[in-house]
Amino acid sequence: QSVFYIPTSKMLFLVGGMLIILTILSYKLYARSQIVEKHAIQKSANTETTVAPNDASCESIRDLEDLVGVSLIPSTLKKMKQENFKVFTDKETIERRKTIEQNCAHFPKFSKTLTDAGIEIPRKSTTVFQINIGLYCNQACSHCHVNSSPRRKEMMNKSVVERCLEIIKNSPTIETIDITGGAPELNREFRYLVKECSLLGLEIIDRCNLTVLLEPHQGDLIDFLVEHGVRVIASLPCYLEKNVSSQRGDQIFERSIKALQMLNEYGYGVDDRLQLDLVYNPTGLHLPPSQEGLHRDYTRVLKQEYNIVFNNLFCITNMPINRFGDHLISEGKLEEYMELLINSFNPMASKGIMCRSYVSVKWDGSIYDCDFNQQILLPEKPISVFDIDSTDDLLQRKIAVGIHCYGCTAGSGSSCQGSN
Length: 420
Fold this sequence. Notes:
The chain is α/β, with parallel strands linked by helices and about 425 residues long. The chain contains 15 helices and 8 strands.
């Protein structure tokens, strides 16, 4: 008998077993192909419903899902290198401010314009405690008055945060904590600050650039914001991709759209408790248009094109300082822009300027009248959060003003909350 002989019964058993295994494998391969096909169809359908603005000059936005969890920082650093972005020291920041002041020396001083109009701007009790928690950001926008970027490593530490919390607790007139940056969410103390302020029952604002929501390790950020009822004020300088890209860089518009859709999914702009506001900045040498009219345009386009809803739109005038100031000087447009601001001076808007009821705290604890003054270091030797116990200690201090203040009083006025 051959050593290779296999009884017929065993042979039938082996053949049957192999057929069963082949049948199972075939089914699994078929099922897998169906899943892949279904995902591809769903992916295509999602892309069709979330992209393609009616602007023939714009390319179709890539699959928005592919942007989640992919950092914007490498492309931002590449852009900064190509455009020769520079990080300025405090000394250089002061020199840049003085250069603009010298170029504008023939214009009437802002303080004189107020006096001639019979307007006084005494400080009122602080209702908004604004904290610039750091300059680190995943973007580097051309209009940014903060000069933030991934190269900026300045961040508020725990001791300054704790001191701010002590002052807030000692200041009963404070209603709102306004947290800004940079991208404030990337600061290591951001969540601690939000949690502590939430326990105090105060309104908390996160000034969000939107793209940070798609950064790696930020997958639970919206959950955190929802948990603490944080109001999101998000920057979207236009509803057209081309305009946003020219001001903020490639990928910013599509990432912002995806982030807004994510916020809507979590209830922002839909649930009354979760407020979502947008911020518009002009992209050229002009004042913001009517806030009310532009709000209607934003509402219509974002809903029709991307199924996005939001609460309010704030129009903020670009200040002739830092990066935008440098741009005006390099283009020879500083005088033209200043003439626009000064000729549009509105005495009524002056009465509602934010510096009267705001306090702006820098990442190192220095105190300024507003975020614009903070970014140009006006005054050069400010007091610190370690010098006061309550914001009432600031009531007798004079508000510092400069040529840039015309930006807050031109036309309908401008502040961190939009038109005055």
